[in-house]
Structure formats: C-alpha cells, structure tokens
Amino acid sequence: MGFDLDRSEAGEWSAASDSTAPDMQIPLAVPAGQSVLVQALSRNLIAERFAIDAYRKIAAQGGNYDKATLRLVRVALAVEEEHAEILSAIIENLRNLNGALAG
User: Fold this and answer.
1) What value does the mean pLDDT take over residues 15-37?
2) Is 62 helix (H, G, I), strand (E, B) or coil?
C-alpha cells in the first residue's frame, strides 16, 4: 500500500491540521529582510511540517498496519514534532536577536 502526500497542500497549513502547535505556523514565502540562516531554517521547518502531516495521515489509518509499524510511525511523528518545536524556537530567537541588533 502506497502513501501519497501532495506537496500542493503546503500553503494550506492551519490550526485545524496542526492542532498540537498552532503557534508554530510559518508562511511559505520567506520575507526578504531575513538572514540566509533564518530562510534555510524556515524551509527546513516546512519540510518538518510535511513529515508531520504524512505521519499523521499514516497514523490515522492505524487499522491498516500491524502494531509494530503503527508504533514506529507514532514514534517518528513525536520526533518530527519535537524537531519542529526546536526549529520554531531557534527561528524565533534568531528573529528577536536580529531585531535587537538592528534596533
């Protein structure tokens, strides 16, 4: 059984699709004034969101998988959510630091 994640869904992130951390939403277009590092981290966060969405879709079909596979998916989901939280915090700290240095 295959799994397909349509990347065109990238612009459709909402609090409903990510109810665990709605404050971690980021725009797809990176503002022009940001550093290259913040831009790269923002793109990485988008990739984490794709992984989280994919694992959530797989976990929602839990009846189709054996217990070991489902557990593996849930562990991977937790790891990806932790990565997204860490990246979000780093991005916010860098933006605050850049704002303090500019001001």
Assistant:
1) 55
2) helix
Of 17, 72, 73, the closest CA to residue 49 belongs to 17
In angstroms, the CA 36 to CA 39 distance is 5
The residue ranking higher by pLDDT, 28 or 78, is 78
pTM: 0.64
In three-state secondary structure terms, 85 is helix
User: How far apart are alpha carbons 48 and 92 in whole angstroms?
Assistant: 16
Banded model confidence at residue 55, pLDDT cuts 50, 70, 90:
very high
Task: Spell out the alpha helix ranges (H) of the chain.
Answer: 36-60, 67-102
Distance of alpha carbon 77 from alpha carbon 59, whole angstroms: 9
Q: In sequence order, what are the residues at sequence separation of 6 or more whose Cβ sits closer than 8 angstroms to the Cβ of residue 50?
A: 5, 7, 10
